[in-house]
Every structure is written in structure tokens, then in C-alpha cells.
Write a structure and sequence with these properties.
The complex is a heterodimer of chains A (about 130) and B (about 220). With about 130 residues, chain A is α/β, with parallel strands linked by helices. Chain A has one domain (about 10-130): 3-Layer(aba) Sandwich (Rossmann fold), CATH 3.40.50. Chain A has helices at about 15-25, 50-55, 75-95, 110-130, and strands at about 10-15, 35-40, 60-65, 100-105. Chain A has a 4-stranded parallel beta sheet with strand order 2-1-3-4. In chain A, helix 1 (about 15-25) crosses helix 4 (about 110-130). With about 220 residues, chain B is α/β, with parallel strands linked by helices. Chain B is about 25% helix and about 25% strand. Chain B is elongated, with a radius of gyration of 22 Å. The two termini of chain B are about 25 Å apart. Classes of the chains: A alpha/beta (about 130), B alpha/beta (about 220). The interface of A and B includes residues 47, 49, 55 and 95 of A.
Chain lengths: ~130, ~220
Amino acid sequence: MNDFKPQIIAFCCSNCASAAAGVADGMKKAMPGNVKIIQVPCTGRIEVLHLLKPFEEGADGVYVAGCQQDSCQYVTGITKAAKRVAHVKKILEELEIEPDRIELFNLSAGKGQEFVEVAHTMTGRINELGPVMS
Amino acid sequence: MIVAEPKPVKEILDMVRDLRKILIVGCKGCVTVCNVGGTKEVAILASTLRIAAKKNGKEIEVGEHTLERQCDPEYIDEIRDFVADYDAVISIACGVGPQFLSERYPEIRVFPGVNTKFMGGAIEHGIWSERCAGCGTCVVHYFGGLCPIARCSKSLLNGPCGGSNNGKCEISKEVDCIWDIIVRKMMEQGRLDELLEFKPPKSWMTARDGGPRMMTREELVK
């Protein structure tokens, strides 16, 4: 029996993803319990180190939920976040850890349903991959 | 500044695979400015090594420290009280750093965590370009303030060569022909004739051709 419960950290933009979380809450959509949300003022503020630390501390997956590419509150925040996520994917590859353990999702304030779906998508993905530690 | 880039993680992991206590030492000089060896990058490399250890079921201890500079003995001394607690040091300063550390702490194994590339500057955030070859006798004033030694693929002092094509060098369409830029600039300044003046051959004794270099300024020596 597989009793693996993935620990997932979600960095969520306070302008879009967190608003989407509010919409999801209003729609009574339940988030998976294993996803811990860290709200950030802008995903552009998330550094490579912020994305690595959860893995160091035992997380099995990390994702960034931010704005659409063309509607970032701070114009280039989500673009910077996408580049940093891509960089961490490369680091994970070099460590022979599946790069799919980290992902970036483009949301917007009204997408409550999608906000919850993203959490379930990542949970399903990490469940399939299993724990990081071999 | 001296510009460097991170070594591939796999290369660093191979260097330290049998070691359990590792100190990563950064530098607040050039490598901080080019985002490769400062406090932030020390933390990133430390985290990367810890994740690798965790994945492989190994116990490691990774220390983090960033020196004011790794090219001055007084700053190198700063780690003397605890460096011996570690099996090895990874220096993410330029190539000077690991050598100064090795010389000061001969009993400690020191590994380089970055590849030192060149002396240059940031032409925009995240993009650096070579500007100086350290030849020891600067002559940029002959060439409109631009250095053909560092920036011409052949280091020609009497360019452009036949490989200059529409302002680009024959080695790559991404590389500007510096001689094209020099000639245009001298024309704009009305100084093109200066390029025709006879100059004696440049002495390369002050460059690496003269062997490893040292410099002494008596007014500064105690």
C-alpha cells in the first residue's frame, strides 16, 4: 500500500493566484491538504534560493502560481519567475531529480476553479513521482 | 570586473562526493557583482549540495561564509578559527580566491566552484562582455578608447582583417568586428589619419608572454 503523502509548497502571487484562492473558497472548492501556500507580493520576488529551500527541507514538489504573461501587475514579475523556475529545473536535472517536481502556472484573479485544479494536478504528479529521497 | 560563471553542479558534486563537511566561501568583490560568487550564490550552492546529499541518503554539513574579498590576506584570515573544522573548502571567487585560500591554509583541500572567464563589464543585466586582456601596457587611446587586443578575435593592432563583414567578425555573426567600430569612431572624430601613424611593435613582455607577473609599489610596501 502506498502511504506516500507528498509535501508541496505553492508560492502564490497576491494579485492573481491569492485572489483566485478567494474565489475558490467562495465556490467551496477544497484544496488538497498537502499543499502549503506561501503568499508573495509578486512572483518576480521569488529567488532561486526560495525555490530550492523547500526541497532542502523535505518538500517533494514546488510550484509558483502567478499572473498571465501579459497581465502581470508588475509587468515582468511572472517572466522573471518563469526564468527562475526554469533555472531550478536545470539544477534538479543535474542532481538527477525529476524537473517536473517544480512548475509554474499562469492564473488570474477570477480562476478559482483552476487554482484548485493546479493544486490537484501537482499533487497527482508528485504522487506518481514519489518521494525525492531514493 | 572579473567575470565568472558557475561550474556545472555535477562537476562540483564529483569533486566533493566523499567529503562530509564542506565550507563554501564566497567573495563580496567582482563575483558578487556578476551574480556568481556572493552571499546569495553561496546559499544557493549550499542548498544544492544539501538537496543532493538528502537525495542520496548521505549526511553532510555545509557551512556558508562570504569574505569581503578573497584576494587580500587580511580577509582570508577571517575564517582561520573555523576552517579546520571542515574537510574541504569550495571557493566561488574568481581563480585568485581558491589559490589564496590554498596558500593561507595549506592543510585544507580547496576546490573551485566557478569558472573564471574574463575581465569585462555588464552590457546589460545578465550579459557580460570582455573588455581587457590584461596585456600590461594599455594602448586603447590609439584606437578610439577601444581595445583591439581584447576585442579582436586575432588581437590585431592593424585591423580590420579580411574577415570583417558588415561590422561582424568572421568567427560569428554575434561578434562585432571591433576594428569596424574603431575605424568608424576615428572617422567620426576626424582622427582616421592617426591610425596610419607608425607605432613600434608592441612589447608583449608585460603580458603573459613574460611569464607569471608581479607588481610592487614601493610607496605602499610597509
